[in-house]
Design a protein that fits this description.
- By secondary structure, the chain is α/β, with parallel strands linked by helices.
- Helix content is 33%, strand content 21%.
- It has helices spanning 11-19, 32-37, 39-44, 54-61, 100-112, 130-136, 151-160, 198-203, 221-233, and strands spanning 6-9, 25-30, 50-51, 70-74, 90-95, 117-121, 145-148, 164-168, 174-175, 185-190, 206-209.
- It has a 7-stranded parallel β-sheet, sandwiched between helices. A 4-stranded mixed β-sheet has the order 1-4-2-3.
- Strand 5 (90-95), helix 5 and strand 6 (117-121) form a beta-alpha-beta unit.
- The longest helix is centred in the middle third of the chain and has 13 residues, at 100-112.
- It is elongated, with a radius of gyration of 19 Å.
């Protein structure tokens, strides 16, 4: 099995990959029960799964992977360049968010709120790993994931296209609810602990925060993304 291919496991990620006509699937390994569960999706793609015992997938993926009896090997999706994305709606940008669990969860929120694209730097961001795709729960098939060389230049490019760019910062003076939310708008999220880098902050049109009154006034970056997207779309 080539590590250059996308390795996709779990019911929701595999189901969405099967339903995605842009996905070229090389192989599908499935337990008998899992194959029966996705029988309609498998039949629609005219794929003959290799029926295996779940232990085979345990050995392939490791004991921590919740594969639910399903494993696909597929060609990586072709992703657009920044100048090829739709220039309307909402774009989410990540400033060195590296944890694949967090990025996968952010992709899931992006899909839920119909985000135009997720933008991250080619360096200091996770590859399209199996862990990321499992955390995204199928959202990787729906949200364009754009990799750029320089985040600040990408922000400037979006500004030239009419985007208003907001940076999420827990110390910002302004509330996200009071910010201009007329599309197109981009929201930039920083890594946990470090937050937004200085140049990123300076390139934003404005910094906003999520108002929190509890004893802990910060959120995991993926949770912050979901709350911010709700605030921008409500």
């Amino acid at each position: 099995m080539s590590e250059q291919n996308d390795i996709i496991y779990g019911v929701h990620p595999v189901a969405e990959a099967l339903k995605n006509p842009r996905r070229k699937i090389y192989s599908l390994k499935a337990s008998r029960n899992a194959a029966d569960r996705l029988a309609a999706e498998i039949a629609a793609r005219a794929i003959t799964p290799e029926i295996v015992h779940p232990n085979v997938l345990d050995r392939r993926l490791g004991p921590e992977a919740v594969h639910q009896g399903l494993l696909i090997e597929a060609k990586p999706l072709d992703q657009p360049r920044l100048d090829q994305i739709d220039k309307s709606g909402i774009v989410v940008m990540l400033d060195q968010v590296t944890d694949p669990h967090n990025v996968g969860a952010i992709l899931r929120s992006c899909a839920a709120f119909n985000v135009t694209a997720l933008v991250a730097t080619a360096r200091h961001s996770p590859e399209s790993s199996a862990v990321l795709m499992k955390s995204a729960s199928g959202a990787y098939e729906h949200v364009p994931f754009v990799k750029v060389t320089n985040l600040s230049r990408a922000m400037a490019e979006l500004k030239d296209c009419g985007f208003h760019i907001l940076g999420l910062d827990s110390d910002a003076p302004g509330d996200i609810a009071d910010a201009s939310r007329t599309p197109p708008v981009a929201i930039v999220l920083g890594a946990e602990g470090k937050g937004l880098r200085q140049l990123t902050r300076e390139t934003c049109d404005g910094l906003v925060k999520l108002p929190m009154n509890g004893p802990i006034r910060s959120l995991n970056v993926s949770n912050a993304c979901a709350v911010a997207l709700y605030a921008l779309t409500r």
